[in-house]
Write a sequence for this structure.
């Protein structure tokens, strides 16, 4: 049986460098461009495809199966010799930074939300959207088995956040090019 | 441009500058550049404190608390523990959710633990095969019960 057109996953291509333009006043978003290029380049996939499964996300870009494939591309001259970053920064940190870059692209383009600020809470960075209306929890991994458990843990963090705010969760697994993106209401325990 | 929109632009500029400094501070820390990280966190803390004061003046205690705790966290990363402690205690005076208050109290406890002078540590044991105590070149007899305190006395 031919696949219904509405069942097909839509595909969008974003340049990582567009983080500079999505909101020029967010002067810190471009900071994540280089780690993202370095990590995706290490997989020798260009553009780097990422299938994002969405939950409770409102977007005209989503097909009936609530998925979207984002193809992440970049210009070769943006970060030549990107592999050198692995000599100075631990891979785990690069994965987290790369996940932030992908999250910002998806949050902005798919959910049409504006990233506004980062604050520090102890050792943890909190990303806020829409002038502190929503929280954004982000995590990155290269272990496919961790995708579900990381997502679950982040959902719990959002639902029980100390500010009592609703929030989004974005968890990206680079090794199998999959991500989960969801929205959650604060749960008052 | 009128005074109100100038004021709003300045506030937005503060938010973006301190966000960049936090990101840069964390990046330097990950690189192992702790001195540079401390400098960046200190700069971020100063801006975040200004932001907190603005929110307070605007009658937004929830936002003021978020910024105060962020400033306190930045000061801690910058190595300015007394200032971190003072701001965290200030944040506690605002109307917070129980979870947020608990998190700040844990932060305060952590700062106090670091600030407290280290209690004298004492090691006690029995000499097994005879040993030379390194500072005094004192030969200890086998079976002798020794107590070594943190200041190096036996």
């Amino acid at each position: 049986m031919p696949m219904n057109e509405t069942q097909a996953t839509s595909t969008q291509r974003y340049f990582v460098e567009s983080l500079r333009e999505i909101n020029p006043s967010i002067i810190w978003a471009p900071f994540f461009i280089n780690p993202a290029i370095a990590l995706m380049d290490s997989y020798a996939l260009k553009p780097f495809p990422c299938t994002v499964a969405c939950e409770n996300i409102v977007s005209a870009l989503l097909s009936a199966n609530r998925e979207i494939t984002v193809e992440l591309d970049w210009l070769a001259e943006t970060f030549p010799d990107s592999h050198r970053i692995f000599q100075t920064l631990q891979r785990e940190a690069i994965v987290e930074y790369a996940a932030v870059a992908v999250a910002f692209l998806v949050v902005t383009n798919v959910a049409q939300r504006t990233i506004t600020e980062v604050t520090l809470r102890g050792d943890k960075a909190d990303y806020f959207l829409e002038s502190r209306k929503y929280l954004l929890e982000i995590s990155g991994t290269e272990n496919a088995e961790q995708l579900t458990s990381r997502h679950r843990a982040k959902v719990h963090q959002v639902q029980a956040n100390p500010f009592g705010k609703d929030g989004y969760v974005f968890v990206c697994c680079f090794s199998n090019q999959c991500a989960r993106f969801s929205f959650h209401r604060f749960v008052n325990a | 441009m009128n005074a109100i929109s100038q004021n709003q632009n300045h506030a937005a500029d503060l938010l973006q500058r301190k966000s960049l400094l936090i990101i840069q501070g964390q990046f330097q820390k990950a690189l192992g550049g702790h001195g540079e990280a401390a400098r960046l966190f200190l700069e971020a803390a100063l801006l975040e404190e200004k932001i907190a004061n603005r929110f307070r003046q605007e009658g937004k205690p929830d936002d003021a608390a978020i910024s105060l705790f962020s400033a306190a966290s930045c000061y801690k990363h910058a190595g300015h523990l007394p200032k971190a402690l003072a701001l965290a205690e200030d944040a506690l005076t605002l109307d917070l959710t129980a979870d947020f208050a608990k998190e700040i109290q844990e932060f305060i406890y952590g700062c106090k633990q670091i600030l407290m002078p280290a209690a004298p540590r004492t090691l006690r044991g029995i000499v097994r095969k005879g040993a030379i105590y390194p500072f005094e070149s004192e030969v200890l007899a086998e079976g002798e019960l020794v107590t070594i305190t943190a200041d190096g006395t036996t």
About this structure: The interface with chain B takes residues 25-28, 31, 88-90, 93, 97, 116-123, 125-126, 132, 160-164 of chain A (CB under 8 Å). The CA atoms of residues 124 and 171 of chain A lie 16 Å apart. Residues 11-184 of chain A form one domain.
